[in-house]
Design a protein that fits this description.
It is a single chain. The chain has 187 residues and is an alpha/beta fold. Helix content is 56%, strand content 16%. The protein has a 5-stranded parallel beta sheet with strand order 2-1-3-6-7, with helices on both faces. A two-stranded antiparallel ribbon has the order 4-5.
């Protein structure tokens, strides 16, 4: 996911940027200025956002309003309490500083997985894998879990006529991949 980061504390912004990148997502920003962050909303295509509530003497609520209007999920990262957030944002996830980047991303990825606008099965699988990799830090275990879910879903629709066509397609694609990639690995 492409995650907009709005944070004016340099060390926190740098840590978020490093952590988000190491966990497989891309950072837009980080922005320490509200005007710059607002401009990025029109030029960058953010999938989610992490917002510090207060930047200097201003709040990020105008950015939050714009994100809500664009249906972009976001979380607040703040040293303030939930009571410092306007009522219109109280249903948003509010994380207190310091908070782990993983917990912020878990919330954003879970939202994308459940409510995102995935265009097809591939997008859903990519979203599932991204989310599970955050839940389970072992990538191989995450892949096995997603594979198991995928197999359960396939067995649920096994009686459907489309499954036969899908099976033939998958076998053809597997044979092609083996033919193209295995010779490279055994030289």
């Amino acid at each position: 996911m492409r995650i907009l980061v709005v944070e004016d504390e340099f060390l926190i912004a740098q840590q978020l940027t490093r952590d988000i990148g190491s966990l497989g997502d891309t950072v837009i920003g980080p922005f320490a200025d509200i005007a710059e962050a607002m401009c990025s909303l029109t030029s960058a295509d953010a999938d989610a956002a992490i917002l510090d509530v207060r930047l200097g003497g201003r709040t990020s609520f105008c950015i939050a309003d714009q994100l809500k209007q664009q249906d972009v999920p976001f979380v607040f990262l703040t040293g303030y309490t939930a009571e410092d957030v306007p009522a219109r944002f109280r249903q948003q996830s509010i994380h207190c500083k310091p908070s782990s980047t993983r917990s912020l991303l878990l919330h954003l990825h879970a939202h994308r997985l459940r409510f995102g606008d995935a265009d097809g099965v591939r997008d859903v699988l990519v979203d599932m894998l991204s989310y599970v990799r955050l839940v389970v830090s072992d990538n191989a275990a995450a892949e096995r879990l997603v594979e198991r879910v995928m197999l359960q879903a396939i067995s649920t629709v096994e009686g459907n006529a489309v499954v036969g066509d899908l099976r033939a397609l998958m076998i053809d694609l597997m044979d092609r991949e083996i033919g193209q990639n295995l010779p490279r690995h055994f030289h």
